[in-house]
Each structure stands twice: as C-alpha cells, then as structure tokens.
Amino acid sequence: MIIWDCIVVGAGIAGSVVSNRLLEQDPTLKILLVEAGPNTHELVDLKAIETDPEVTRNHTWSFTSVPQVNVDNRTMSALAGKGLGGGTAINGGAWVRGHKVDYDLWGEMVDDERWTYEGQLPYMRKTETLWDQTTNPSVHGHQGPVKVETPVEMGRIFPLRQPLMDSWRELGVNPLPSLDSNCGDNLGVGNIQENRHHGKRQLASQVYSLDGITVLTDSLVARILVDRSPRGPLVSRGIQLENGTKIFARETILSAGAYNTPKLLMLSGIGPADKLREHGINVILDQPAVGQNLHDHILLPTFWHFADPSAGWAKGSGNPLFEQPQYDLGGFGDFITATKLPRKGLADAIAQDEGGISPNPMLHPLLNRDRAVSSHQLLYSGISADGSAIMLVSVVLITTGRGSVSIQSADVKDDPVIDPNFLGSNFDRFAARETIREAIRLMSSNMTIMGREIIDGDGTDHPLTVDSTDEEVDTLVRGHTG
User: Fold this and answer.
1) In the chain, at which end, N or C, are there fewer CB atoms within 10 A of the end residue's CB?
2) Closest of 312, 477, 382 to residue 51, by C-alpha
3) What is the mean pLDDT of residues 142-150?
4) Structure confidence by residue, pLDDT tens digits, 442-452
5) Does the UniProt entry include the keyword Flavoprotein (predicted)?
6) Do 314 and 281 share a structural domain?
7) What domain count does the chain have?
8) Does the annotation place 466 within a ligand binding site?
C-alpha cells in the first residue's frame, strides 16, 4: 500500500501552486494531486480568447445560489473552474491586485507584517513577468512564471480610449502613474493587465509545473479520512473517492475552492453538528464556523447605446480596425478604473449596520483611509451583434454582508447550498447604489464627453439620470446584481 507524503485535493490555482512549491522545497516528497475535473492541458480551444462556450461548460462547476432576498429573490450563477488549472481555465484573465490598504488591514488584523502590502509585494513580484519592464519596476516582477501584458502593449488601441480617459478626468478621477493599475495605490484610471501570453490563456497547472507530481484527474473526492491520533488531536489519514477507493497520506491539503472546500469538510464530519446530524453524517468535530463568512464581489453590469451606431466604436460596427490580428490577443477593453465612495451617507450606512452607533471616522477601517471600493471597465465586444451598444462592468469590491455554504445531503454528487447574501448590509446597498450613480455620471450625463456626445442612454423607456431617486437606482441595482 502506498502512503503518500501529501495529498492535495483540487488542482485549481491554489492547488497547483502549493503542489509545485512543496516539491520545489523538498524534491523527495511523494505528492498526489487529485482533481474532480478533466485534464485541460491538450485543449487548444480552452486557451483561445473566443473560447467555445461548450468547451468552457465542460470545465465548470455550474452551481446556483439560493434565492437572494435582497435581489428580488433571484437565484444567481455560482461558477467555479473544474479541471486542471481551475479558475484559470474559465476566467476572464484579468490580473488585478488589491489596493495596498486592503493588505495593510490584513496585517493589522493578525498583527503580522508579512500580510501587509510591503510584506506581500515580494511574492507578487515573484509571481509575474510584466511585458513592459519600464513600468514601475520596483513593484513588478520580470522573472516570474505568469506572463502579464496590457492591451496597449499588444497593439490594441480602442477608438473610445481617449474619450473615456477624458470623461474620467471630467469626473475628477485621474490617470494613475504610468497607467499602472497594479501600482499599490490603484485609485484612478489604469491599463487593464491580463495574465495572457501573446493573447493565450495561461493555466495555473502548466505555468506552475506539475512535473514530479502524480496527478489524478476525473476523480471526485467524497470525504477526507479523519480520526484521532494516540495523543488526542484529529488527524487526516487521506481521502476516499466517490467510487469508494481510499488513498492514504501523512498530510492532506484541501484546496477545492470556496464552495467545495466547506462542502467536503462537512461530508467528512467537520462542521455544524446539527447540520451534519440532519443528513446522517457522523460528527467528528462540531465546528459551526465551517461554511460561514462567505463574501463575494457584487457585479453590476449596465448597457449603453451609441448616439451614432455607425461611428465604429465597438466590435460588430464594421470598423476594419477590429479585424486586425492584434485585436484577437486579449479582451475587448482597455482601462480598469478604481474609485472610492462619497463620504456623504457612508457613515450613516455603517451606523445602520452597527446598532445605530455612529462610527469614529478616525478609527473605522471604512472611513479612516481611502479605499478602492468600486471598479469599472468598459467592454467593446459581445453586447450587440451590430456594435450599437456596449457594457460597463462595475463591481463593488468591498462588501460587509456575509453569506454561507452548506450541504443539502450526504451525497457528494449533490451541489452545495450557496447563499452569497448579496446586498446583505446597508453598506453594501449604499456602495452598490453609489457605484451605479457613478456609472450614470460617466456614461449618460452632461458632465462627460461620453454622455454629451457619444452615448444615447441605456436603451430603456425610463433611463436613469443623475437626478434619479435612491429608490429608482436601488430598483436597477436589484435587477442587475449578479
């Protein structure tokens, strides 16, 4: 019987990296990497920009949330990568660091400098090879495994680039130094960075070599084998697959993603005791925190129609520019813009969530420093076949509402019960409302060149304006949140 030194469950981004790093530190280790999905490495289509939806579908956990009470009781797609590379097999390829304040708050919370921005920066640099070696070399890497490029460096100059930049300036949102969106202080307008190599998708399981690691694909783990050591603490002895096969190891690392990791813990008898007993699962450890504290970004897409659809602003408009080969080397957008929330109303929203107590603006982490709460990216493709409309993808990056992941049965084949609790706090609702108001100011107000000359509303019978009421904006937020 083989006893592995380590079993890693899940060959996504984290599982691939940790397997690679473990073997790098100790080449004598016997490591088994187990993945529920297929081997993606030979799928050329999966690495292309315009990936076939059917190909992507076969490499996706296509979960659905429970009805969201704050979003008109709609259910939401909850997707995750399935196969070698995990999320890198299906995601959009954006390469986005958080604002340095976010990392510094981590360091303060755990009282450990290693989790601050400066503590994490060496590892960010170690990870990447930025195409342009002249952009902020002190904060970027040029020898890492992940290749990073921008649309400009690939020759994709979109016709709306200058009007969009000018419009942000008119709103008081300025370009970042060197247009570097990953400079640490990313409040402003910067070039979107993509983890693509000459336009091709990069899989984590290839970028971080798995040579020397035994990889088992198409193998669904049903539970972690856990018992008590002679000294008392719980220890993992390995895993059991769905087909009943048991595989033993000295250590097991669970890296199955935000949805499947808590599910596997519960199926293994680790989690809230009442929930485990409800499904006939033997309780090994009563741990109510398992599956709690889920939080996610709030996606808020809005759609905008051109005043002159024949102007050639977007793909499908007949503009021959988009037929040039470089426009197949990445996404159809150029800037990503990070913005903060207005102070007016922010403290009130926080107070409503915190028992009516007014927060101290000098001490509260949402008030005492500028935070990159929202991001916006304009996409010029895939919205209308004739190029007459575009989409602004706005995202609330910082949320205070918390959701959960649970189980619906003791059967590993059943989907987890996912409740992201979107718009679950007054802060979240305030942030989403103000994010949409910023989108309106940018795209359809007289405050910007986009609104004055280029965009002709959102195509609805009752378009929102800068004068729309909170109730009107909130209605749109509930309908667009995803």
Assistant:
1) N
2) 382
3) 96
4) 999 999 999 99
5) yes
6) no
7) 2
8) no
Residues 475, 103: Cα–Cα separation, whole Å: 33
pLDDT digits (tens, 9 = 90+) for 87-131: 999 998 999 999 999 999 999 999 999 999 999 999 999 999 999
d(CA 204, CA 217): 15
* CA gap 482, 478 in Å, rounded: 9
What CATH code is carried by the domain that includes residue 42?
Answer: 3.50.50.60
Sign (positive or negative) of CA dihedral 97, 99, 102, 105: positive
Give per-residue burial for 174-183: e unless 16+ CB within 10 Å, then b: ebbeebbbbb
Q: What are phi and psi of 226, to 5 degrees?
A: -130, 135
Confidence of residue 52 (pLDDT cuts 50, 70, 90): low
